[in-house]
Amino acid sequence: MIALIDCGSLKTPEIAAQLDQYIDVQTIGLYDLSLDQLQAFKGVVISGAPILLTEIDPLPYVQQFGWVKEYTHPLLGICFGHQLIAQALGGTVAKSKKGWGVGVNAYAVDDALLEQADGKELCLLASHQDQVMQMPPGAKKIATNAHCEVGGMVLGEHILTFQGHPEFTPEYARAILSFRHDMIGEQRAEEGLKSLVSEKHEGARAARWILDFLRQ
Predict the structure, then answer these.
(1) Which one of 128, 147, 165, 201 is the catalytic residue?
(2) What is the mean pLDDT of residues 194-214?
(3) Element holding 29 (H helix, E strand)
């Protein structure tokens, strides 16, 4: 059984549905967490969230997720989860001066560090301005591009994170771009919309990597 921590993303049910086809999943509320409870699961997934760590006081979240320092089973973070794991373990998260990362983003993948990877590039939908600027001690970068240097990381053999969203669909990304258009800015939003046509989102491919990782 895998625990899926719901941090408030509208797409958390899609994560559960994708995983539940292959592995048993139990969704847990953000505040219903304890190390003893989570150690009973074979792995944990931390979802995205509709908030920016840089626009709130992150300390309560970092303290709430302090258990990640002691968790010993496979641990996966997506977007907000990626950033939260990094910060809880001593990394830093900041708002990117490069603006928003939106649409389909192509990441160079270090497949020597990620044994589940089946190639050296991965295209994922993204929607973020916050980024991991400094990885926590011991972490290694496994995905990167010009906009987002730390597009994914591993720490030891039991932590894997992605900034991109395997669970997103092009239709949902289009809706997010429309909703956040003014926040993102017209030029970047238009670039994101064009990428939905010119690039292919590889969420299913990333999901296979994630399943292999959680099953280890």
Answers:
(1) 165
(2) 96
(3) strand 25-29
pLDDT in tens, 50-65: 888 999 898 888 888 9
**115 is an active site residue:** no
- Strand 43-46 and strand 101-109: the pairing is unpaired
Place of tokens 């906009």: 147
104 φ/ψ angles, rounded to the nearest 5 degrees? -85, 120
Active site residue 165: yes
**Mean pLDDT of all residues belonging to the chain:** 94
Q: Which of 7, 14, 79, 147 is catalytic?
A: 79
Q: Would the CA dihedral through 201, 205, 209, 210 be positive or negative?
A: positive
Give how far the C-alpha of residue 56 lies from the chain's centroid of Cα atoms, to the nearest Å: 19
Mark whether 79 is an active-site residue: yes
Choice among 7, 167, 201, 202 that is catalytic: 167
CA separation for the pair 93, 98 (Å, rounded) = 14
CA 23, CA 215: separation in Å to the nearest integer?
Answer: 9
| Cα radius of gyration (the chain) | 16
| 157 burial via Cβ count (<10 Å: 0-12, 13-18, 19+) | exposed
> What is the C-alpha end-to-end distance of the chain, expressed in Å?
13
**Can you give the pLDDT at residue 216?**
83
